[in-house]
Structures are given as structure tokens and as C-alpha cells.
Amino acid sequence: MTTRETTNEAPVVAGLLLAAGGGRRLGGRPKALLPHRGRPLVEHAVRVLREGGCATVHVVLGAQADEVRARASLPGCVLVDNPDWEQGMGTSLRAGLGSLAGTGAAAALVSLVDQPGIGPEAVARVLAAHTGAESLVSASYDGVRGHPVLFGAAHWAGITATAQGDRGARVYLKEHRPEVALVECGDVARPFDIDTEADLAHLE
């Protein structure tokens, strides 16, 4: 089930937040609901996308989706349920790109809910490198590709066809490496993940 917002014109680039993870190494706590600055982490991640320039944000939910909907304040977001979230990030990416079909968006700027060290500055830099439906743009950290990543609409079908398990778009991006514009963000963001109990120290 997908809840769509009513809008007359879709923005050129839509934010796509992957927030379905169940936090297996965190005792089964959904990453979207981890507390950060007094609120669920998913709220922070949505705010980062909006402050970085994404007027529309699609959020893919999976683990305890009903509880996330009940506890997190996500007004104006398009909430996308991924019933196959346990199979890995690839299913969430496919669900998210599927939710953008027909919206008129020329690109999707994809971010992960468990990377609170990546703020609006990095989002804005990647967004600024967008040139059209053929764009492939990735933040990089000391030259190493990371998130957020921008996929022009011309690439969505190819990404959907290759996104499997936890690989997401990795295979597609590797195959199209010469086309990927890297935008250095190491001076404005830290690309750590919240995966283990030790990582919770990064949350505030």
C-alpha cells in the first residue's frame, strides 16, 4: 500500500529515504525509530532531505511500519510499505523507485535512515550536480563512493532490474562507473552507519 500526497507538480528531484531496516544487530529495533535529538531518527532523515532541497520525500517503511507511522511525525511525506524488507535494501530501493513512477520526477535522491552524520549540505551538493533524467551522481568521501546517491529517471528500470538483497544499486553503479559523477562531501559529512550497539554512541 502506498500513500501518495496530492500535488499539482512533482519537483524535478524527489528525495527517497530507505527506512525499512529492522536493526537485526541492534536487538531488532527498527532503525527508523531509534531516538535522535529527542525524536525518531526517521524524522531527522526526512528533515535533512528537505533542508537539502528535496521538496517531496518518499519514505520506504518495513520493520514495524505501523508503529513508525504512529510514532513518527512525517507530514507531507509519501509513505511506501515494503512487505519484503527482510530480503534486503534492494527490495526497498525497488519499492521506492516504483512509488515515483508516474510522478513526473526526473530523478530520485536516495539516502539511508541510519546515516545521521550526513546532513543537508551533502544533499545539496549532490542535488546541485543533477543535470537531467540521465544523471548519475554520488557523494564521495575521500574519493570513495557513498550516500546520498542521485538516480536520473532514465536509470530507474535498470536499477530496479539489478537491485537484489543488500546490494541495492551497487551492481548498476559499478556497470555504469564512467557515467557516475562523484561529488566530494568529506568536508561536510560523516558517512558512518548505525548498525551495532557501539554505533548508537553517534546518536544524540
TrEMBL record:
What InterPro entries does the record tag this protein with? MobA-like_NTP_Trfase, Nucleotide-diphossugar_trans
MobA-like NTP transferase domain: from which residue to which, for each copy?
15-176
Which CDD domains does the record match to this protein?
GT_2_like_f (cd04182)
From the UniProt annotation, give the residues forming the signal peptide: none
UniProt-recorded Gene Ontology molecular function terms:
nucleotidyltransferase activity
Name this protein carries in UniProt: 4-diphosphocytidyl-2C-methyl-D-erythritol synthase
Query: What is the species listed in this Swiss-Prot or TrEMBL entry?
Result: Streptomyces cahuitamycinicus
